[in-house]
């Protein structure tokens, strides 16, 4: 099933001086349940702008976007917020954990906006999620007492704790060494698979991109599919 579909999407911004700036143009992309998509591109090519659109944090200037086959344009602001909270998890390069809050409190945060069991059992659910990322014994640790790799594992637990169907990762390994980055990505893939979520990863690192099954390049706001060298080799 197609979770998210973009048709001829553009994003332009009006600049105070001079003509408007086109950040994305003619973007076509479909993401289905269980997909592993990577997007590579130079700094300034529009990757984060695209991810903000995919995460319903921003709207296309022109073109159409569908979430669960429903036009995003027709969503009210609160319907968009609800869909984002329930179905989308974000992971950022700089982890973006709440400082001064424990690992457990960080993972619990998204559950404060949930309903029913997810809300009432938030502490238990968050603890189980921390255990799944191998940090059950660091539940009371503050972010500044954790290593970069551990902080990113907390961020992964937080992004997955409501069982999203789409995980959006913007340079998730950008602040980690190669080995830690690779182990964090494998963990992310594993927990995404366990919860049946699609994963879209933005990265500069070809080795991280190779972990995906569908590859795209973004060049000056134009998205093009890439056939992986590995896939091109006959069996
Ligand atoms: N609100 C805005 N107003 C003006 N320019 C913007 C705005 N948002 C993004 N841009 C510009 O659009 C281009 C793409 O930005 P974006 O953050 O999407 O790049 P990126 O590919 O994520 O880069 P990086 O790899 O450095 O994170 C940049 O030139 C940026 O300066
Ligand atoms: Mg960026």
UniProtKB/TrEMBL annotation:
Q: Name one GO molecular function term.
A: ATP binding
Provide this UniProt record's keywords sorted from A to Z. Answer: ATP-binding, Nucleotide-binding, Transport
- Segments forming domain ABC transporter: 4-235
- Listed GO cellular component terms? plasma membrane
Q: Name one Pfam family in it.
A: ABC_tran
**InterPro entries from the entry?**
AAA+_ATPase, ABC_transporter-like_ATP-bd, ABC_transporter-like_CS, ABC_transpr_LolD-like, MacB-like_ATP-bd, P-loop_NTPase
Family of the protein in this entry: Belongs to the ABC transporter superfamily.
What name does this protein carry? Putative ABC transport system ATP-binding protein
Q: Read off the lineage from the record.
A: Bacteria, Bacillati, Actinomycetota, Actinomycetes, Micrococcales
């Amino acid at each position: 099933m197609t979770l998210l579909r973009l048709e001829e999407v553009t994003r332009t911004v009006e600049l105070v001086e001079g003509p408007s700036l086109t950040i994305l143009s003619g973007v076509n992309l479909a993401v289905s349940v269980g997909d592993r998509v990577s997007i590579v591109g130079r700094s300034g090519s529009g990757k984060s702008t695209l991810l903000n659109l995919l995460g319903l944090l921003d709207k296309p200037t022109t073109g159409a976007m569908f979430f669960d086959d429903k036009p995003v344009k027709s969503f009210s602001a609160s319907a968009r917020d609800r869909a984002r909270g329930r179905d989308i998890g974000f992971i950022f390069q700089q982890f973006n954990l709440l400082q001064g809050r424990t690992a457990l409190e960080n993972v619990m945060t998204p559950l404060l906006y949930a309903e029913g069991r997810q809300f009432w059992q938030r502490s238990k659910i968050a603890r189980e999620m921390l255990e799944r990322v191998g940090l059950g014994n660091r539940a009371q640790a503050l972010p500044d007492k954790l290593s970069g790799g551990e902080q990113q594992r907390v961020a992964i637990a937080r992004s997955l704790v409501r069982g999203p169907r789409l995980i959006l990762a913007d340079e998730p390994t950008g602040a980690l060494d190669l080995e830690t980055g690779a182990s964090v990505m494998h963990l992310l893939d594993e927990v995404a698979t366990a919860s049946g979520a699609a994963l879209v990863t933005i990265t500069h690192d070809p080795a991280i991109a190779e972990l995906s099954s569908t590859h795209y390049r973004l060049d000056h706001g134009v998205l093009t599919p890439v056939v992986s060298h590995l896939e091109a080799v006959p069996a």
